[in-house]
Amino acid sequence: MTARPFPHMLKPLDLGFTTLKNRIVMGSMHTGLEDRFFHYGKLAEYFAERARGGTGLIITGGISPNRQGWLLPFGGTMNTWGDVVNHRRVTSAVHKADGKILMQILHAGRYGYHPFVVSASAWKSPISLFKPRAMKESEILSTIKDYGRCAKLSKMAGYDGVEIMGSEGYLLNQFICSRTNHRQDKWGGPVENRMRLPVEIVKEVRRQVGEKYIIAYRLSLIDLVEGGNTWDEIVLIAKALEKAGITLLNTGIGWHEARVPTIVTSVPRAAFREVTRRMKKELSIPVMASNRINTPEDADDIVASGDADLISMARPLLADPHFVNKAAAGKPDAINTCIACNQGCLDHTFAYKRATCLVNPQAGYETELVYIKTARPKKIAVVGAGMAGLACATIAAERGHNVTLFEAADDIGGQFTMAMNVPGKEEFRETVRYFRHQVSATGVTLKLGQQVQAAELEKAGFDEVVIATGVQPRTPKIPGIGHPKVLSYPDVLRHGRKVGHKVAVIGAGGIGVDVSEFLLQEHSPQPLADWLEEWGVDLSVSEGGGLRARRQDAPLRHIWLLQRKAAKKMGQGPGKTTGWVHRLALQHHQVKMLGDVEYVKVDDLGLHIRVDGEDQILDVDNVILCAGQESVRDLLPVDAEGKIRDKRFHVIGGARFAGEVDAKRAIREGAELAAKL
Ligand code: NAP
Ligand code: SF4
Prior knowledge:
With 677 residues, this protein is an alpha/beta fold. It has three domains: 13-350, TIM Barrel; 379-472 and 630-676, 3-Layer(aba) Sandwich (Rossmann fold); 486-521 and 556-627, FAD/NAD(P)-binding domain, CATH 3.50.50. 31% of the residues lie in helices and 17% in strands. Strand 4 (57-63), helix 2 and strand 5 form a beta-alpha-beta unit. The longest helix has 20 residues, at 137-156. NADP nicotinamide-adenine-dinucleotide phosphate binds next to helix 18.
C-alpha cells in the first residue's frame, strides 16, 4: 500500500465544537464581487468551486462593519437583513459543496478610498488619498458594537465564523502601533492601551456569537514599517486576544505601505514561516502561517515541523481551486501553481477591477467562462506552444477536441522560458510544468521542433487552425545596430551569451527590467538569508517593525536602463503592486535610469545618446535590446486589408497584437477561444 500523500497538510483539525477537514485555509482576498449584491451569485460559485476542490476552510474578502470602515465606496457590508440574504447565497453554496466559510470583518481605517475615513489619529498614509479623522471615544465604542452586530448577522447568514482583520495596516493595526496611534487617552500610549480596541472587539464579538463559532484574528507578526511593534509587544497582544476568546490566530506580514515586498514572486517561498513558528510556541490555540506558501510540499512541511497548524493561501487557490484534491490524489504536478505575479489578482483589485488570475482566467468568472464537453469533436491545429497556444490547445482537448500543437522550438513555454531564467521569477517554471502535464493529460498531440508550413496545415484538413505564433523582438533602427556589442534579450536570457561589466539596456519595459535584474543577481533562486539582508528584514523583530539596516553591496554590473519616454515612473514593470519592488531593487543595485533618451549610434566607444540636447557616450561593453516586439503571423491567410480570408483560422496572443502582450492576455485569449471552438 502506498503512503498517503501530504498527510500533515491533509489531517483534520478538531476545534472542539467543529472539525476542519484539512489544514488548507483559503485566506481572505478581495475580488470585487463582494461589493455589489448582484454579484453574489458569482461570488457563491467562486467560493463553492474552492470548497468542491477540497479546501478545508474559506475566508471571504473583507466585509466592513460600518460605512467608515469601507475599503471602497459602497464596499461590501453586513449591516442589514438584506445583507444577510445576499450572504446566505454564499454560505449555502459552500456548505452544499461540503466546505466551511468565515466572513472577514475588515475596517480599513485610514486605508479606505473614500472621504469618511477614520483612524486612531489624524495621520494620512503615504498610499492613501484621504486624511483620516481621529476617532472620538464615542465612535470607538460604537465601532466595537458594530463589529459585534456584524458578527451576529454573519452567524444568521450561515457563516461558520468570522475573521477579524487586524493586520496589513488596517484600522486595528493602526490602533495597536505607535506609528499611527498618537492618542493620549486610554486607547493610546502603552501597548496595553493600544491593544484595547482589538481586545474589546473580540470580547464583544464572542458575546454576540456564543462559544461555538469560529473567531479567527489576523495579527501582524511583523509590521515591516518604522513605528511597528516589537516581538514582545506582539506576543503580549496575541496572548490577550487568546484570553479574550479567539479560536485561531492567523498571521499577517507587513503593512500595505511597507517598502519591503512580502508576497511578490521574488520573495522566497515560505519566507516568513519563522515568525509563525515562534508565535505558535506562545499560544495554545491553533496558529496559521501565510505569505508565499504555494505548494503542497511546503504546506505539508510547515505543518509536519510544527511551525503552524494551518496554512493560509489565497492566491494559490485562485490559481487552482482544486489544489487540495489534486494534492490528495498524489498529483501535485497537476496543480496550476500561483506564480505570485499579482497581475490578475491584486493589480486588478487596486485598479478597481474584478480580481482574476493570470494562470487561471476562470477565477472570478466561474459562471461566465465555462468549458463544456463538446458534442462534435473537431480536428484542431494550434500553431505555437507559448502561453496562448498552450491554454487554447489544452482546454480545447479537455473539451473533447482532437488537437495537434505545433511548436518550432524544442520545448514548450514561449516567452516564459526566458522569464523563468530571471532571478526572482523562478516560479514561472511552474506554469511551464503545469502545461507540460496538461498537454499529456488532455491528449494533445505535441509536435516540437516543427516549423509548420501553410501547405501542411491545408493538406491535413483541420477544421480549425489557431495561430498562436507569438512575437519576435523588435530591432530598432539605430546606426550601428549590427555592432558585435549589441545583443538581443533572447541572446542573454535564452542563449546565455556572455555579457560584459558595463551594460546599456535599450527599453525600460518589463523585459528591460527583467534583463537588468538577471544581470545583477548572482543566485537564482536567492537564498532567504541573502534576501532578508538585501531588504533589511529582521525576523526576530527585536526592533519595532522588524526592520534593520539593509546590506549594501557593490553592484555586480554597471547598468544604464534607457527609454525614449520621460523618466517618470521608469522601470515600472506591468503592475502597480510589483512595479515599486522592481524599481527599488534596481535602485539597490545602483542602476542608472535615464528617460527622454535619443539613441544616436553604437560603435566601438559604446552607445551614443542625446539627452536634453546634450550628447553623451555610454562607455559600455554591451548594448542589450529590449525594445518591445512585433507579431509573428506569417501563417495567417489575410487579404489586402489584413482581414482573415479563411474562417477556419483564428489568431490569439502576441500574434494577434504584439503591443502590451503579456501572459495574462495570452492565456485568457487562448482559454476564451478554446471555450468557443
Ligand atoms: P514593453 O513593455 O512594451 O517595453 C518596450 C520598451 O521598448 C519600452 O521601454 C519602449 O520605450 C522601448 N521601445 C519601443 N520601441 C522602441 C524602438 N523602436 N526603439 C527603442 N526603444 C523602443 O515591452 P517588453 O518590455 O518587451 O515587454 C513585453 C510584454 O511583456 C509587456 O506587455 C510586458 O508587460 C510583459 N512583461 C511582463 C513582465 C512581468 O513581470 N509580468 C515582465 C516582462 C515583460 P520607449 O518607447 O519610451 O523607448
Ligand atoms: Fe497568483 Fe498571479 Fe494568479 Fe494572482 S494572478 S493568483 S499572483 S498566478
